[in-house]
Amino acid sequence: MRELSEIDVVGVVGAGTMGNGIATAAAAAGYEVVIRDIEQAYVDRGLAAVEDSLDRLAGSDRLAEDPETVRERVRGTTELSDLADADLVIEAIVEDLDVKREVFAELDAIVADGVVLASNTSTLSITTIAAATDRASDVVGIHFMNPVPVMKGVEIVVGERTHEAVVALAHAFAADLGKETWESDDKPGFVTNRILMPWINEGVRAYDEGVATKADIDRGMKLGTNVPMGPLELADHIGLDVVLHASETLHAELGDRYTPAYLLKRKVEAGDLGKKTGRGFYEYD
Ligand code: NAI
């Protein structure tokens, strides 16, 4: 396995919200980054987002260098084979087990032996993803939080076969990006989403059942439990479709206590997905 000191090039698969955030954080920490998406338009959008994040970070203690110098370390591509020289790969594509398994099988054939393949999955099994490769011991979860350049926490997920040196590398890599880590066994939702998703769904149900106004549900949880966002605003921030999808995965694995709230499904069906569509539980400009 490649040691942290041997990692120069980080491959990122998926240039969406999380992929471009991971690319930004890795480049800011001095790594060369190759970011891959399936269409040039998505690659371009990802690179533009990297540039925006770097401009926002400029002058803060999170970015020691000039943004342009950091930006030059990030290269975009539509070819997975351009990740052949990567020393570590982090996958951040759609949350779909079959698609992730396909990409991991392809990556396994492309990158050198000893290169660790990490997934940023929020809820899917690292063990099942790893089983699509011939290097299951080199597959680990490195679960960044959104927005990546700002959020300090990273969850390291240990699959059934993940080698302990690979787990240690994942912690060390995240720490090198200025993050703080914790570890979770490969169980549905890991630590964060296993606990967060029922909390959000209970907030949605409380609103739907008329316990309080949505503003008072969010105020109550913020003032009463000292969290920065209440369940309804946080759902809008994450995206209601993402919350519903994660809730459905947990429901399938863990049973009825994870049933998604009915109003969550109704809003997703209506296309009100939260901040990204301008309307979720609240309205946005
Ligand atoms: P997104 O929808 O913003 O981006 C996904 C990107 O992957 C899209 O640009 C899509 O074109 C691309 N893609 C799809 N198939 C691909 C393939 N075969 N090769 C390369 N690119 C491909 O999704 P987002 O939100 O960035 O999520 C990515 C992963 O991160 C998911 O597994 C999600 O569960 C996880 N995650 C998301 C968080 C969030 O708050 N959005 C937080 C933590 C984890």
Automatic annotation (TrEMBL):
InterPro entries: 3-OHacyl-CoA_DH, 3-OHacyl-CoA_DH_NAD-bd, 3HC_DH_C, 6-PGluconate_DH-like_C_sf, 6PGD_dom2, NAD(P)-bd_dom_sf
Alphabetized Gene3D superfamilies for the sequence: N-(1-d-carboxylethyl)-l-norvaline Dehydrogenase, domain 2, NAD(P)-binding Rossmann-like Domain
UniProt-annotated binding residues for NAD(+): 14-19, 37, 95, 100, 122, 146, 276
SUPFAM superfamilies per record: 6-phosphogluconate dehydrogenase C-terminal domain-like (SSF48179), NAD(P)-binding Rossmann-fold domains (SSF51735)
Source organism of this protein record: Halorubrum vacuolatum (Natronobacterium vacuolatum)
Any one GO molecular-function label of the UniProt entry: NAD+ binding
Pfam families: 3HCDH, 3HCDH_N
Site (Important for catalytic activity): 143
PANTHER family assigned: 3-HYDROXYACYL-COA DEHYDROGENASE FAMILY PROTEIN, 3-HYDROXYBUTYRYL-COA DEHYDROGENASE
Example of a GO biological process term: fatty acid metabolic process
Name of this chain's protein: 3-hydroxyacyl-CoA dehydrogenase
Keyword tags: NAD, Oxidoreductase
Domain 3-hydroxyacyl-CoA dehydrogenase C-terminal: 189-284
Entry superkingdom: Archaea
Residue span, 3-hydroxyacyl-CoA dehydrogenase NAD binding domain: 10-181
